[in-house]
Amino acid sequence: FQGKLVPIFWSVSKGFYRAIPPFSRRTCTSVPDKLLLIARKKDIRLRQLEPKNASIEVDMVVPLDGLKSAVALEWCSESDYIYWTDVGRGSISRAFLNGSNQATIISTNLVTPAGIALDWITDKIYFTDSGTNRIEVASVDGKKRSLLIWQGLDKPRDIVVDPINAKMMFWSDWGETPQIERAGMDGIGRESLVTSGLLWPNGLSVEENRLYFVDGGTKILEYINFDGTGRKTLINSGLLHPFGLDIMGNRVYWSDWETFSVESADKRTGRDLKTIISNTSDLMDIRIFHRNRDSIYSPCGIDNGGCSHLCLLNPSALGYSCACPIGVKLTRDNRTCSDAPKNFVIFAHRIDIRQISLDMDYQIDVVLPMPGLSNVVAIDVDRKTGYIYWSDNVEDIIIRSSVDGMEIEHIIDDSIDGVDGLVIDSVGRKIYWTDTGRHTIEVSELNGSNRAALVWKDLDSPRGLAINYESGLMFWTDFGNIPRIERAEMDGERRVKIVESKIIWPNALSIDETEKRIYWTDAHHNIIESSDFDGNYRKVLLSDVPHPYGIAVSDDQVYWTDWKTKALHVAPKNNLNSSRMLVEKLEGLMDVKVIKEEVDVTKNACGEFNGNCSHLCLRNSASFSCKCPTGLKMKAGSDRDCEILPESYLIIASRNGIGQISLESTDFFDVVLPIENVHGGVALDYHYNDSRLFYADVNIDVIKSVNLENPSETRTIVTGLDIPNGLAVDWIANNIFWTDTGLKVVEVAKLDGSFRKIIIKDNLNDPRAMIVYPKYGYIFFADWGVRPGHAARIERCYMDGSSRTNIIDSNLGFPNGLAIDFQKNKLFWADALEDKIESADFHGKNRHTVVSPAVHPFGVTLYKDFVYYTDWFNKSVFRASMLTNSGAEEIRHGLPGALEIRSVAASRQPKDYSPCGNENGGCTHLCLFREKSYVCACPDRMQGECKTEPLFSVPLRQPGEPEEPPEPSDDNDGYGLSFVVKDSHAQAVIIATAVLTVILVIVVIAILVLVFNSRRKTDNRTSNSGNRFMLTFTNPNYNGTDGQHNGESSVESSAGSSKRIWKRLKYDRST
């Protein structure tokens, strides 16, 4: 079996797999205590040394995933872990000897990890990186890490440690001056041991105060005492290219690249050569696993030596020292590390965020432990708390986190579309950002509350952003059709253009606080330029910059990122031509900020009490001003107190939030109401007088109630639903109605969810949107009727479910989004399949097209002379005038999952009379109005004693109110394209014209029939499979799942495309 791989069967014992020899599968051997570990780039193998049956030598492959180029090995007998470096992946990993529990423990800031060593006394791993020329140390789980050696290294290779006697580490270096060095295990006391007679010093091993080493160039195996004396050659023949090296007992083992073997010899004489493995390619490091490592008392073993980070052994009298994370200094007690660097550069690298400490002698970038980054673009730091804020333009989100990545919070995660610039006002405690997609500059509190748009008019593509709190000014770049740099006060007022000429692609901005100048990058002109705060005294500071993007200015340095050089550059502020690369070989470098520890002498202009502002207090050049969040106005006669709610606004249900758009301003900016745990909002309605919002969540199958004046006051009122698709509030009787597509019912309850009752359960196919008119006791609801043989329809019934009538049951696709014009007694609906919005009276007569085309409409609502509707596919809200045929205009975009919409205003819930609004009609439980009478209904699950007769009499109508609802009228209602002719002569002319038109049509049809019959034989020869218009449909799917369905045609007509898009609107919560 020598040199061959054979099937190995395993049984588990204490986390270790015991090997059962292939020739005998009856009994297990004892747990092996002498194993040869071999790294072979693509795999790691084991071979048992000194097996009971010496005639059997088997290589066992450890079952590991994803090895690309494994080089160095280490092991721990206490835990049965093996550790390895992978230079192909730039990582260090570990797993049990049986291959289980595999994990990458270090993967950042590694390029070519070539050597690894284990301090089994204090549980640390030491490793070299010949790509970065560093030696580092980390805890065995990789969570704590420190830099030991970073200067004077060329190509460090192998590394070994002696934690028992010398408490030192040794490493080989392949560089231009090959050498072997040593230092304390904390990196202190560095000195060279071997500097001559070396070419490619490779593997190292220590034993009994001796250091053994092999050289792949001189082809020699030597040893030397720890103090550098007694250098001797052990083997100088038979070695072709030795690489790995280890010692066990009286024998020395090594791997050889050119002999494709692992061999051993007597460590004292170099004789008695034996071949352990032969004819095996890609041999790298080797290690001997055994269970006889010595153990001693360690000063780091008690309370980590008092160290806050890493306790490292050294040969001093104390025996150890404390080490801090890369870039962080020890405090004066020499035990405790600072929380973070005091002075540093931080920059965005799209897939990670990196920091370079300016406190240390070295300047090394460290990847901060921020999980789940997709495309980090803009970044800044709160100077008071140290929290890091950044924008992710794939996720469309603004996030903040502590520097250790443990406290992550989403600040803005709705209604953003490309945040390219972001800055923290550490004094005023605000966050400012530019939004390229929404064409805005916005501000909020640091926690994301009180969000307001400051600048939006005539903005094209705002990008870079900077503020100067002392002057109360903010600056931004706009790289749109008319590139420019603008300035405004930090409250958005007194806006002015300061740079308009000789500027093409202005990217980032930074402010020189000392000289009161702005710096910017222009990627078209390939320059870094500067001017004063008024745009005067412009000066090109550096030319021929390949593609500058981010820029940051400190007291004496300028830092910038460059897309083409893939580097972070730094230069003295007074001479940018003498620049150097601080970090290189990184694609996608974006924003950069420099953070300096400063004495905070700037006071918050808003003082301790927020300037007595009810919401936002913002700095300006004079002092401060009070601002209202988007959509709100100041109270009448006040310049500090904002209204709690707009008088009129839209509310929009989306997948993960409830949006609000004020109808009192012309900007139509949306805000997301601070309602937690919205998972799948589809349907909603409100009670105006109670300031309460109700919404159905199809992901968790509940209906919730929200206090609009305090959205944190949210509670679940209805549970046990399947797919609640429609919802309507009777604001007079204080009842709530809803449709359930899954259960195929229509239900009612009181506004608190009590007294729940099914009012319709028969002949429902796919009930969807609904609306109510309490004045007449009407319920209107849409049924998509998508089952075969069941046509889509809109029904009307009374509030107890009686007197059901199909008022619209022809020329319907997917009717949705119902709305009522209470003045003209008209019903409006959106047809999601036919892409239009229509209206009719309450009997289905006088049907008109109001908006066509209305692409992908879902929800529809009315306010004054406008109809508003959502476009779920394009994530937009449109409006169209009902008085003109001017078409629809988009008033807001970037609303993911925009579904139901309602206009909130007093006029949208008229104060009509209903007997059920008068002391609940005398009913004990539910009072349900039905035009000429009402019923007292009992809930399906009895709650207390219920009576079906009122306890006292309540009048059905107020005095003077008509007894009957209005009948359908043939008069033009002003909606759509129909008209009414009242002149009798004109009517006669129209009738005669109509008769002639009918005759002409009959003639044309006859001609077409003849032509059709003449070609019928030819057409019949054609296969029916070529019919372009054979289309089948499934229900729309709100989850947006793509893909073809059975029976779907591939026709590329606009109608076919619409139908295919709407197949994506069917619920399928399994995906």
Automatic annotation (TrEMBL):
GO terms for cellular component: plasma membrane. Residues 961-973 have a biased composition (Acidic residues). Residues 299-338, 605-643, 915-947 form the EGF-like domain. The keyword Metal-binding does not apply. Residues 953-976, 1035-1060 are annotated as: Disordered. It is a single-pass type I membrane protein. The keyword Signal applies. Residues 1035-1046 have a biased composition (Polar residues). The chain crosses the membrane at residues 988-1012. Its main location: membrane. SUPFAM superfamilies: EGF/Laminin, Growth factor receptor domain, YWTD domain. Residues 1047-1058 have a biased composition (Low complexity). It is found in: Cell membrane. Keywords: Cell membrane, EGF-like domain, Membrane, Repeat, Signal, Transmembrane, Transmembrane helix. This is EGF-like domain-containing protein. It comes from Phlebotomus papatasi (Sandfly).
